[in-house]
Amino acid sequence: MGTVKLEYDEFDPVSIEEYARKLIGKTFLEVCEEDIGKQSIIKEEGNYKADHENKKRKGGLGELIEERYFHYHSNNDARPDFDKAGVELKVTPYKKNKNGSISAKERLVLTMIDYYSVINENFFESHMWQKARLILLIYYLYDKEIKDRLNYEIGYVKLFSPPESDMKIIQHDFEVITQKIREGKAHELSEADTLYLGAAPKASSSKDRRKQPCSDELAKPRAFAFKNSYMTYVLNHYIIPDKNTYEPIIKKNIDETFEEYIINTINQYRNYTVDELCDLFYSDNEKIPKSLGALLVYRMLEIKGNQAEEFVKANIVIKTIRLKQNNKIKENMSFPTFKFKELVEEEWEDSAFGNYLRETRFLFVVYKYDVNEKLRLKGCQFWNIPYADLEGNVKTVWEQTKKVIQNGLKIEVKKGKLSSNLPAKSENPVCHVRPHGKNSEDRYELPDGRTYPKQCFWLNNTYITSQLEKHFFEE
């Protein structure tokens, strides 16, 4: 600490938080300027501001707060930043969305995963938990219109410890990740494997790889991180006061895992027809919505609205699947539309569609038509796309799509309908590209200035069928 006199009690988390709250409303530039003239630990001003403004300098804003406000030297120590108080400091961005809501801009990275040591750690003694059990969260508002990030303004400051209601899921996530490493599958880790705590890619280059203990296969460097969806919930529920919360699914202690509880609860209604489920969950004077898939699931889980707390935190998306009597699926599975001009600026490793599949866990709710053409619930399964499929066929289709758009989309009219040379279903066993707009006039602009109907990536119905558990096909 040198000769700097601290303005907070480094042994007391509350004192640290109270001092930190004085940051609210300040920009990072103001923090720097107010530190000038004090007994700063920064010996030379030099290019300090320019270095920390540099967006390529990961953690630069966090370092600035550590050194220019709390007056301790930033380091990569395994212990919490405020070791004497057991508090970890995290400076992280949030953003305002077009609909007026706010969300975390990114996941919250906790610590790198050491593949060799983590397989011998238990949860409560792990390096990860030492970093995660008590965090001083400093949220700043990200604004893409502001070019110099030192002008970002700090909006919220609060101590955060994962609540007891989340702990069982976070611990289970940790065990899922470490078990996969023990099985020699560190190279197959995906954020969609888990609910709140993820194994996030963390490398300076997409080509970086490191050794793992139980396999000769090299794996991407990864870090334990609270997922973006979880941090958005934390921001809205724990950090910002007077925010309404979503309804929790788990309202009491349970013996099974969260996923087992969901599956067992929904399976209670196995073989009910959709009409019978509507009679059961909707009163006579309630209007039954046209899109019943997700809403019936919420009712089965005793959720009155259309959002469940745990699903929001874990970024779980419900997808309804309808099996025909011949065990085939008629519909392909759609995803959000992409903008042509944005896709060509992306790289696969950080593409919108790639990240969506990497970070999303799906709940497939399966219905099947019986001999009387009545749709009956067959059950559900949790699913995330296998690593080999994502980095194989899906990546291939994404790269083909980017190349086609970059080279100038070839548009022609066939049998009165527009068509193009975007990847078709017949070209790939996993996914393809096709329209997903309201009509042919619902369009996005191409890089060359032309417009074309909105498109999205679709998973092939035959592929989805191959991913379903076998019991869904039994009578």
From TrEMBL:
CDD domains: Sau3AI_C, Sau3AI_N-like. The keyword Hydrolase applies. Residues 438-447 have a biased composition (Basic and acidic residues). Keywords: Endonuclease, Hydrolase, Nuclease. It comes from the Bacteria. Residues 72-173 form the DNA mismatch repair MutH/Type II restriction enzyme Sau3AI domain. It holds the Pfam family MutH. SUPFAM superfamilies: Restriction endonuclease-like. One of its GO terms (molecular function) is DNA binding. InterPro entries: DNA_rep_MutH/RE_typeII_Sau3AI, DNA_rep_MutH/T2_RE_sf, Restrct_endonuc-II-like. Signal peptide: none annotated. Residues 420-447 are annotated as: Disordered. The keyword DNA-binding does not apply. Its EC number is 3.1.21.4. This is Type-2 restriction enzyme Sau3AI. It comes from Anaerobutyricum hallii. The lineage of its organism: Bacteria, Bacillati, Bacillota, Clostridia, Lachnospirales.
